[in-house]
Design goal:
The chain is of the alpha+beta class. It has a single domain, classed as Roll (Thiol Ester Dehydrase, Chain A). The protein contains four helices and six strands, in the order ααββαββαββ. Strands 1-2-4-5-6-3 form a six-stranded antiparallel sheet. The longest helix has 20 residues. About 30% of the residues are buried. This is YiiD C-terminal domain-containing protein. InterPro entries: DUF4442 (IPR027961), HotDog_dom_sf (IPR029069). It holds the Pfam family DUF4442.
Length: about 150
């Protein structure tokens, strides 16, 4: 799928996932290999030390992973449902201001689709880095997804 023919994943997620709208997440890049999503600095979602709440940061990272999954496997949605299997997050540094999540697919799309073609239920990781405005890593996430065959 070329960049010109890709759907507006950010717009689609904002229309169908209420938390994306609630947090005003901004999708700046969505390809089948990488997604970049930002959480604007908003007082309503701060924690007790003035940075983004841990739950808001988790939602940011999970949304970036969802964007890459939808971009990579959108053409498979008629036969499989993407679902999260597990997730892990590590908070490394206090985040202040805008936080950006960069998600990367941990296996090739072709390999995952080949498993689906064989009637298997593939599992695959998405790795997410959460960075502060100064570029420092404030957290890391790993989310394992599956494509559950329909029917």
């Amino acid at each position: 799928m070329s960049a010109q023919s890709q759907p507006d994943i950010g717009g689609m997620m904002a229309a169908t996932v209420p938390m994306v709208r609630t947090l005003n997440l901004e999708f700046t890049e969505t390809t089948s290999e990488r997604a970049v999503v930002s959480l604007p600095d908003q007082d309503a979602f701060h924690n007790h030390v003035g940075g983004p709440h841990a739950g808001a940061m988790f939602t940011l990272g999970e949304s970036a992973s969802g964007a890459i999954v939808l971009t990579a496997f959108g053409d498979q949605l008629s036969r499989a449902v993407p679902l999260t299997v597990s997730s892990e997050i590590t908070y490394k540094k206090l985040a202040k201001g805008r936080v950006t999540a960069t998600a990367e697919l941990g296996r090739s799309v072709a390999e995952i689709v080949a498993e689906l073609d064989r009637g298997e239920r593939p599992e695959f990781p998405v790795h997410i880095t959460l960075t502060r405005e100064d570029g420092s890593v404030s957290g890391e996430m790993s989310i394992v997804w599956t494509l559950r065959p329909q029917g």
